[in-house]
Design goal:
Elements: E1 3-10, E2 13-20, H1 24-34, E3 38-45, E4 60-70, E5 75-85, H2 90-100, E6 102-103, E7 106-107, E8 110-117
Antiparallel strand pairs: 1-2, 1-3, 4-5, 4-8, 6-7
Length: about 120
C-alpha cells in the first residue's frame, strides 16, 4: 500500500502525519471523520530511504539558489538546492536542472540566476 504525507492545520498549528492507506481519498476520509484539524495537503511518498545519512563534514556549498525559466510560457520559478557538492560549478548545476526539472509542466529553457552560498571556512 502507498505511504502518504498529510499536512493538517488548525489555528496557528500545523501537524505533519505519515500514514499508509489505499488511496488519497481514504486518507482524507479518515481525517475528516476523526479530526477537527483541516487536511491541507496529501502527498504520496514515492521514494523513501532508510540508509544512514552521511556525516556532516561541511564539504559542500550550503545552498544553491537560481531562477529557472521557460521562454514560451514566460514563466519563471525559484529553485533552492541544499548542500551542493563542492566539485559542481554553476554550468553543471544549470545543465542538471535543465535535464531534470520543469516549469509549469514545460522544459526549462534557461537558468537566469545562479548563486552559491559558500561553506564557512575555519
Amino acid at each position: 500500500m502507498p505511504n502518504y504525507r498529510v499536512q493538517l492545520k488548525q489555528g496557528s498549528r500545523t501537524v505533519i502525519a505519515h500514514v499508509e492507506a489505499s488511496s488519497p481519498s481514504s486518507v482524507l476520509a479518515l481525517y475528516e471523520e476523526l479530526s477537527t484539524m483541516k487536511v491541507t495537503e496529501i502527498l504520496q511518498i514515492v521514494y523513501q530511504s532508510d540508509a544512514l545519512p552521511p556525516l556532516d563534514d561541511l564539504a559542500y556549498h550550503s545552498v544553491w539558489k537560481g531562477i529557472i525559466r521557460n521562454e514560451a510560457l514566460g514563466t519563471s520559478r525559484q529553485v533552492l538546492i541544499p548542500h551542493v557538492k563542492l566539485s559542481k560549478n554553476s554550468n553543471e548545476v544549470s545543465a542538471s536542472i535543465r535535464t531534470h526539472l520543469q516549469v509549469n509542466g514545460a522544459k526549462v529553457d534557461s537558468v537566469i540566476t545562479s548563486l552559491f552560498k559558500s561553506p564557512v571556512s575555519s
